[in-house]
Specification:
This protein is an alpha+beta fold and about 80 residues long. It is about 25% helix and about 30% strand. It has one domain.
Amino acid sequence: MRIIEVRLSRNPPWEKQGGWEVYEGEGVCPVHCGPNAREDALSYARQRAGYAPTEIRVLDEAGKVVETIPPQITRGLV
């Protein structure tokens, strides 16, 4: 099972803009900025989770898990 983390960015340029990262693994970490950044990041994570059993973890500013979205049973693309 894969794990995707949705968290505030710690990269200074994105941190200043309130960016949220969707961390899937080294080198796979898109950042969403703007007034709906958290919701956009969660939406992206849910979309990526649709391809394989995946748990989504939402982290707070301290890096602690505040929400866990369990794997969903999804149908493959037809």
